[in-house]
Amino acid sequence: MKSDDIDNEELTRLLRKFGKAGDRSREALAAHRKFYDHIARVLDRQALQATNYNEDLAVTAVQDAWLRILRKAETYDPARATVKTWVKDITYKCAIDVLRKHYKHNRNTPLSNEDAASAKADGDAMATPTGAGHWLATAPVSDPDETACDLPSPEDRAYGSQLDRVMRACLNTLPTGDGPNYRLAMELTLEEELSYADMTVRLQEQTPPGVLINAEQVRGWVRAATQRMRRCVSAKLGWERPKRGGPATDQMETRA
User: Fold this and answer.
1) Which residues of the chain form beta strands (DSSP E)?
2) Residue range 127-186, pLDDT digits in tens
3) By CB distance 3.0 to 4.6 Å, which of 18, 46, 185, 249 could disulfide with 32?
4) Count of CB atoms situated within 10 Å of the CB of 143
5) Hey, how many other C-beta atoms are within 10 angstroms of the C-beta on 124?
6) 219, 230 in Cβ contact below 8 A?
7) Do you know which SUPFAM superfamilies this protein is assigned to (predicted)?
8) What angle do CA 144, 145, 151 make, to 5 degrees?
């Protein structure tokens, strides 16, 4: 049996254990904690990708998704999808719902001069798609009734396609070359099972001879790339940039 099958069987067992209605036993609580430890990074990463790496929106999306997972644990069908695919689908729908509300609230809010200048400095060319993957093209694997977050409307799907194009364009404005390889660092964050140690090895392979990097530097590259992506996408779509001094929880810090 493949390791992925074993992992999914274990996740399914945990989901069944804590998903029983009214079960508040120690065993159920222990299963709940273990399941969360296994799945938290999957939710965080999916929410960050779907919300344009807006940490505040991603936190809200994960909170909504986790409540839906708790409510719908008994409805999970392993014949239709793996546990990870199921929770990613729920998280994606919740993130798009949060993003849609944010977009509708901020779509007419002009950028400040500082934000506009920062975005222009990060690059304004609409480039062609890269191999980073279709960030917002997560195909639904469950019926709308099985998750409390609504599916996007046709209008919102069109907006999602626009956002995807803009994000690809902004990704291509990130620096590569002999300096910090922000673009590759951002692309590597999309790979589910990569730790910072794994990312460091991959990035070191693309670094000029004689230049050594470590995991802490890679963390800094990811943070800087995330900030540039946010400014670039916000400028192109007319979003208001999150206020400075607010919560700055770095979801990427959950990597090993």
Assistant:
1) none
2) 323 233 333 333 333 443 444 565 555 665 666 667 678 878 888 899 887 778 999 988
3) 18
4) 10
5) 13
6) no
7) Sigma2 domain of RNA polymerase sigma factors
8) 25
